[in-house]
Write a structure and sequence with these properties.
The protein is α/β, with parallel strands linked by helices. Helices cover 53% and strands 12% of the residues. Helix 1 crosses helix 2, helix 2 runs antiparallel to helix 6 and helix 12 packs antiparallel against helix 13. The structure holds guanosine-5'-diphosphate (GDP) and magnesium ion. The site of guanosine-5'-diphosphate (GDP) has 18 residues, from helix 4.
Length: 300
Amino acid sequence: MPSPLSKRILKGEAAAAARLMRDLDDGVPAAAAEVRHLYPRAGRAHVVGIAGPPGCGKSTLVDALVAVLRKEGCSVGVVAVDPSSPLSGGAVLGDRIRMQRHASDPKVFIRSLASRGSLGGLSRSVFDTVTVMDAMGKDVILLETAGVGQDGVKIAGAAHTVLVVEAPGAGDEIQALKAGILEVGDLYVVNKRSQRGAQRLARTLRENLGGKPVLLTEALTGQGVNELLRAIELHRRSLQRGSGWEVRSGAMARTAFLELVETGFRESLLGNPLCKKLLSDIAARRSDPYSAARRALRGL
Ligand SMILES: Nc1nc2c(ncn2[C@@H]2O[C@H](COP(=O)(O)OP(=O)(O)O)[C@@H](O)[C@H]2O)c(=O)[nH]1
Ligand SMILES: [Mg+2]
């Protein structure tokens, strides 16, 4: 039986969802128990990760995508992890202004996660937030993060579809082709397409991406955003036609699980007397890290 709070969340109530997200962030034990009610009822939302360098227009693009999704009747969740984003911690005022047009829409739920220096904590919050939004019945969840692997979440392990956004001028093409970028994306977007260098950047990406879609957008005006949404939907359908959806969902489950196990293991390990003894032995050079680690793993 779902708890009263879970019931409200499953009905899509924003206030109940916001409360649970806050309690999960604060590590309230009763909040973790609520997830037990919600998790089996979630799993329907299409989670779309949006990564790319600061300033390329991710938040603006998210805002434009929300507008198009709403026009089509979809409910939307937005999770913004980018610490430099006007959507998140850095400039809450900018966030409010930018999202004003969606803020009063009950079918849109926006949550910014400010980077708090703790990588683990942050990615746990991301998964919790996605689970709650999913349980609320959001059709699409847009997850904005800086970069592709650093600072918070490894986007590929947290989304069904990964969008890599670039913009001309923010460094040269070599930057755009940095290690990791070419592997992680399902779709590539050259934003600020009216600016000089956009076409050339798109060409360079196409030459290096072996057939992956490259779209051009102007997030500020919404040009190209309909086409981008079509490409996102196409990717979802291609995942659902084969085993792709299960593979991606499995990777997301694995990341969320490992995150909790690793954090829990680390905490219980560091609190263990055997571990304290081993650490002092290493420090005094009575033992070495390898031997001590072997002993710790055996002892636990
Ligand atoms: N000219 C132009 N500017 C844009 C476009 N999209 C975003 N910007 C501007 O680029 C800056 C950074 O945008 P933002 O969405 O915060 O980028 P983020 O850091 O990737 O989230 C802001 O001043 C935006 O107004 C675009 O399509 N064209
Ligand atoms: Mg941003």
